[in-house]
Amino acid sequence: MNVHSFLLSLSYQIKHMVALSKSDIKRNALINATIKLVISNGFHATPMSKIAKEACISPGTIYLYYKNKQDLINNVYLHVKQKFTQAIFQNYTNNTPVEESFKIIWYQIADYRLKEVAEALFLSHCDNTPIIDDESRKEGIKHLQPLLDLWERGQIDGIIKKACPYVLYAYAVYPLAFLINAKQRDDYELTDESKEQAFKMAWDSIKITEHKS
Amino acid sequence: MNVHSFLLSLSYQIKHMVALSKSDIKRNALINATIKLVISNGFHATPMSKIAKEACISPGTIYLYYKNKQDLINNVYLHVKQKFTQAIFQNYTNNTPVEESFKIIWYQIADYRLKEVAEALFLSHCDNTPIIDDESRKEGIKHLQPLLDLWERGQIDGIIKKACPYVLYAYAVYPLAFLINAKQRDDYELTDESKEQAFKMAWDSIKITEHKS
DNA sequence: TTTTTAAAAATGAATGTTCATTCATTTTTA
DNA sequence: TAAAAATGAATGAACATTCATTTTTAAAAA
């Protein structure tokens, strides 16, 4: 590849990046503004005008991207949910032993929530509140399938308790949301050590306990 | 006790009940209306006029009982929180063995949430949302002290893991909130059997695992 | 017991503000 | 230079809160 064609392809790539960005930059700014304001004020207490200001665009522009306020929040929810599930399954392959797989996914969840605190709070907010349409909410749950499959595999192997996915999720994953919330609101600190401890507790709760013979 | 004095005391009691009720009936109607509407619409999407209508009083009357909308929600939150903690510790005495004590309290929590579904959803809503003032929120946490003390006792006895109260709470109590939410929203059913299973998972997560010798 | 009366409680229409959404105009793009 | 994108002031609806008026209460007087 000579210099000329390299520069040509580079300029094309940059142009293409910019072209992609055009509206995507705005869309991202909008999403982040929504998340930020919703977690600190609540959805209905956050005016569109403030979201617009935070995203450095005009209120009218929001309506070029989303039909209305409800459509905005549904889409932001789905976007975050997708990013979340994308992040947590990235290192997972389904031929790894169950406990190790679970550990990998669990740590991905913990690390995602610790890194993307705002998004984590936003998800908690949406999941405990009637602001999201039922349809979008159902859509958001689907993405967890690989984890449910993993649990089923564990159950077949006699490693994981025969509880339904809701119960397993409640003990193995949901507590993390509480810890992140506490970390934000109170003075609780989630160190590497307590993360390890929290994982052990998650695993202890869903694994089948071996009895002393 | 003769008939006369019986009737006298009865009329006194009724009068006293009615006397107590006067504003208490309204206050209760107001609280229940708020809970009902907040869990189905969210706080900021619930107008005072609707709360008033649901409680069968006039919008203006609310302001005789509460300073403003924020004051109303703070008070409802504290009221429910108090009722909750009152309910869950009612059979607890601190000279019962740790595991049994925990089981008693845990089942009280589960049963309260199953019976008072609206209140349970309301608490989830408030605890994951910025609608409650920090001050009221802090006030609401205090009431859990007996449970924290129990855990400390368990830690001293070497029965319960040496995790901080936040972590213990996240695994031993918080998952119940998820299960109740799921029960409401989805088709998940919480039977006596799965309740037992959930308790076992809660206990398995916080107890110290004995190693095979 | 019935009537009177002043205080307390409750009412709901009116007020002023906030906000979602629109659209005529301006700016940017290619 | 025409089409596309963005703007932000204007509109109308919704809502929290107020307060002049009405209703209820219960104690005092008849």
Return the domain count of chain A.
Answer: 2
Class per helix and strand makeup of chain A: mainly alpha
CATH uppermost class of the largest domain in chain A: Mainly Alpha
Query: What profile does the largest beta sheet of chain A have?
Result: none
In CATH terms, what is the fold-level topology of the largest domain in chain A?
Tetracycline Repressor, domain 2
Name the assembly state. Answer: homodimer
Please give the count of helices of chain A: 11
Q: Biggest interface, which chains? A: A-B, 45 and 45 residues
Please describe what this structure looks like.
Two copies of one chain form a homodimer. By secondary structure, chain A is mainly α. Chain A folds into two domains: 1-65, Orthogonal Bundle (Tetracycline Repressor, domain 2); 70-213, Tetracycline Repressor, domain 2. Chain A has eleven helices and no strands. In chain A, α2 (48-54) packs across α3 and α4 packs parallel to α7 (134-142). The radius of gyration of chain A is 21 Å and the shape is elongated. Chain A binds a DNA duplex (30 and 30 nucleotides) through residues 22-23, 26, 47-49, 57-64, 68-69. Chains A, B: Residues 24-84 form the HTH tetR-type domain. Chains A, B: Keywords: DNA-binding. Chains A, B: It comes from Wenyingzhuangia heitensis. Chains A, B: This is AcrR family transcriptional regulator.
